[in-house]
Design brief:
- Helix 4 links the parallel strand 4 and strand 5.
- By secondary structure, the chain is an alpha/beta fold.
- The chain is about 55% helix and about 10% strand.
- It has 4 domains: about 130 residues, Rossmann fold; about 180 residues, Nucleotide cyclase, GGDEF domain (Alpha-Beta Plaits, 2-Layer Sandwich), CATH 3.30.70.1230; about 100 residues; about 90 residues, Arc Repressor Mutant, subunit A (Orthogonal Bundle), CATH 1.10.10.
- Helix 2 packs parallel to helix 3 and helix 19 packs across helix 22.
- About 25% of the residues are buried.
- The strands form 2 sheets. Strands 6, 7, 8, 9, 10 and 11 form a 6-stranded mixed beta sheet that branches. The protein has a 5-stranded parallel beta sheet with strand order 2-1-3-4-5, with helices on both faces.
- The longest helix is centred in the C-terminal third of the chain and has 40 residues.
- This is Response regulator.
- InterPro entries: CheY-like_superfamily, Homeodomain-like_sf, HTH_AraC, HTH_AraC-typ_CS, Sig_transdc_resp-reg_receiver, Tscrpt_reg_AraC-type_HTH.
- Keywords: DNA-binding, Phosphoprotein, Transcription, Transcription regulation.
Length: about 550
């Protein structure tokens, strides 16, 4: 849960603090060590260090300078200073550098444990404040435009959001949450007058168009807008007055005329103030929010019939929603797409997505063969693209039948299409599993060989990670997953086993066995050995004889 870094230029001090204190009882799951401030700063850059215990007097960069640099790299890291000298200036610097404590050597175990616990308490308190309800609401308000835009894009693309969840999001984002109220859609396409701008300038112009739109429509309507996947500005327009169309003098035709007038005003204002032209489409009135997706699809098809031009169009179109059997397969195109799930290696999600498409196919009463062709081509293309992005050739997967997407056997029935698609997904999953296991096995084997060859030296997680060209945190994770044993526990066990063997099979002196087992300081070796075997090296050797 927490990661600790111990820094001291005296190796036996570092080893003593790292291996003889009950850090796991405090929830510390990873202990890193460094023998200089420079080495400590390198570790800080790559590891998520929560607490640092550092000596003050070290060659080069001092502990005081170290904690100043640590706070520049990681402001939330807590630092504890150790010193063999009582110096008021040190204490002053420690306070100004926001150190948790300034402790004098030799520090008592209880005192150091309590100080580290204090640091942990401070970390937990700070994160509770970050995740507090008030802070969350503040952060939410800062990101409302992006959140609203993302939600509208999801609805435009047909992503299914359970009604209860949708209502909660609409309320949270201060959007109209009254089901079945009327809405209209407005599409704004920037025309050739804007084509010469770079992306940054264009985004500013889009922001200007949104501001102009809100100013023009503000009296009677609320706007909810986003930029869709085709780079159109899409606005959902809802009346501020729920009874807008229930007024006896206001029918849908009059309400539409109001929208058309405001839309033409928008076009004129953009031309006048932003020196460019836009095309605008206004939809008919629909039922909010259920008809957002079909209205969007129909509007897009209408806009495509009007090519881009210099001066812009005003497109006034009644919504004529095609019959249900002519609608594209909803689950096939609803995000996340098959290609994105395959590229992410989320095979269970791919399987669920594919089965939802199959289930939708079974509900179709007509044009089933064309829908099956569409599904087979989409899945086959997604699989092929995924293979090529991984540097794999189609011939390596000839058995899964990607090229059989449109043959008679595959499309003979929905059941045969289901079997074909499931077989492809399963084959890709099996290949990925084998690749992962094979890669991990090779890495673990290299690590174990390196540890055995350098057991009498300072074998650190960083040195092992450098040996196999991986990030230390990732190496630590896969080692634990593959072997069921933590890296430091593994090295510790091997050293104790080697020491045990040397004590029972040789007459070498304790200090020689200590060195060959990777411990420079014999006293520290004796303490570690006793902790592991519950007896000193001398007692262990005497017992065996």
């Amino acid at each position: 849960m927490f990661e600790l870094l111990i820094v001291d230029d005296e190796k036996f001090v570092v080893d003593n603090l790292a291996s003889t204190y009950p850090w796991e009882d405090l929830g510390i799951t990873a202990i890193h060590t460094a023998h200089s401030a420079h080495e400590a700063l390198q570790i800080i850059q790559f590891e998520n260090i929560h607490i640092v215990i550092t000596d003050i007097r070290m060659p080069g960069i001092s502990g005081l300078e170290l904690i100043d640099q640590i706070h520049k790299l990681s402001s939330k890291t807590k630092c504890i200073l150790l010193s063999g000298h009582s110096d008021f200036s040190y204490a002053q610097h420690a306070v100004s550098s926001r150190a948790v404590a300034y402790l004098l050597k030799p520090v008592k175990e209880e005192e150091l444990i309590q100080t580290v616990q204090t640091a942990i308490d401070q970390i937990e308190t700070e994160w509770k404040e970050v995740t507090s309800h008030q802070r969350t609401l503040y952060t939410l308000s800062e990101h409302l435009p992006q959140l609203r835009s993302a939600l509208l894009n999801d609805l435009l693309q047909g992503k299914y959001i359970p009604p209860l969840m949708l209502n909660k999001k609409l309320t949270m984002f201060n959007l109209p949450d009254q089901r079945d109220q009327l809405f209209a859609m407005m599409f704004v396409r920037m025309e050739q007058g804007f084509s010469n701008y770079d992306d940054y300038s264009r985004s500013l112009l889009e922001f200007g168009i949104v501001n102009i739109s809100e100013e023009i429509f503000a009296e009677k309507f609320q706007l909810w807008q986003c930029k869709d996947i085709y780079d159109y500005l899409v606005f959902v327009i809802t009346p501020k007055d729920p009874g807008f169309l229930s007024d006896s003098e206001m029918n849908e035709q009059k309400a539409r005329k109001i929208l058309e007038k405001l839309s033409l005003q928008l076009q004129d204002s953009v031309t006048q103030f932003l020196k460019g032209s836009v095309s605008v489409l206004i939809s008919d009135w629909g039922s909010y929010p259920d008809q957002i997706y079909p209205f969007y699809q129909n509007s897009i098809s209408i806009i495509r019939r009007h090519p881009e031009n210099l001066h812009g169009f005003f497109i006034s179109s009644k919504h004529v929603v095609p019959p249900a059997e002519f609608q594209p397969l909803h689950n096939l195109y609803e995000p996340p797409m098959l290609i994105h799930l395959l590229e992410a290696g989320r095979f269970s999600a791919v399987e669920d997505k594919f089965m939802s498409i199959i289930d939708e196919l079974r509900t179709k009463k007509g044009y089933t063969y064309e829908y099956m062709q569409e599904t087979a081509l989409m899945l086959g293309s997604a699989v092929l693209q995924t293979l090529h992005k991984q540097g794999l050739l189609l011939e390596q997967f000839a058995d899964i039948g990607i090229l059989k997407a449109t043959d008679h056997e595959t499309l003979a029935s929905i059941d045969s299409l289901e079997k074909w698609g499931t077989r492809m997904i399963d084959s890709l999953r099996d290949h990925a599993d084998k690749e992962t296991k094979g890669s991990h096995h090779t890495i673990i084997q290299k690590v174990q060989e390196f540890v055995h060859a350098h057991l009498d030296q300072d074998v650190s997680l960083q040195s092992l990670a450098d040996h196999v060209y991986l990030h230390p945190a990732y190496l630590s994770k896969i080692f634990k997953l593959e072997t069921g044993e933590g890296m430091s526990d593994y090295i510790y066990r091997l050293r104790m086993e080697k020491a045990s063997h040397l004590l029972t099979e040789t007459n070498e002196k304790i200090h020689e066995i200590s060195r060959k087992s990777g411990y420079v300081n014999p006293s520290h070796f004796s303490r570690v050995f006793k902790k592991y075997f519950n007896m000193t090296p001398d007692e262990y050797r005497s017992r065996e004889t």
